[in-house]
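Example record

Each entry pairs one chain with its bound ligand, adenosine monophosphate.
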Amino acid sequence: MKILVPVKRVVDYNVKVRVKPDNSGVDIANVKMSMNPFCEIAIEEAVRLREKGAATEVVAVSAGVLQCQETLRNAMAIGADRAILIETDVELQPLAVAKLLKAIVDKEQPGLVILGKQAIDDDANQTGQMLAALLGWGQATFASKVEVNGNTATVTREVDGGLETISLKLPAIITTDLRLNEPRYATLPNIMKAKKKQLDNVKPAELGVDVTPRLTTLKVEEPPKRQGGVKVADVAALIDKLKNEAKVI
Ligand code: AMP
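Structure tokens for the complex follow.
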């Protein structure tokens, strides 16, 4: 069985982004970019399934600018066997990504697609669900444990009330939560090996997908600055502030 893992190149989680002066978005010029952390967990899980013998090949795929090649090389250094770049300069929204991924799934015929539950740049949490809908496949989102046995995946999901375990018929979609695994570090020999692995390049038009954005961003704002705290003299003063200033009681 082949596993397809979509990986997104995003602003590194350690970077504090700045909103552009015209509030049209965030400034990502000269900012460090990395693989979305949830996608790293997805690659790690797919590689572990291959190492256990539940899968035969792991294919990483990324949609975006040419520099996404670095993200794909990183995925191959973690252990993906080969990679596909869907190259475009258009800013992609989740529906466009899901359509592109459906075209790749139609071609590659994987038994499982493991995505991150969300990309930390736009926090959309939509692509996996949209892909499942476009394919008509079952889905297990927010996975914290995955087991594959023949034609079935058993997935434990983190839900509000605790853990839910569901069984899925393959082919299926899984999206990863934070506690699914701890991705391994790419070692230097594996980084070197990854440079020689196959990396194909396709364009959205070759896949017959129109990636024109459907949504317009109206405004992006910084979160409000936190005000400094004060010490109150007694409980009565605290209650007065909670009632009249914070208006929470
Ligand atoms: P989102 O729905 O944007 O929060 O992203 C959820 C997941 O979809 C990510 O963790 C990736 O696995 C996948 N994904 C989103 N955008 C892309 C992209 N441009 N290229 C490859 N995978 C993507």
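The chain has a mean pLDDT of 96.
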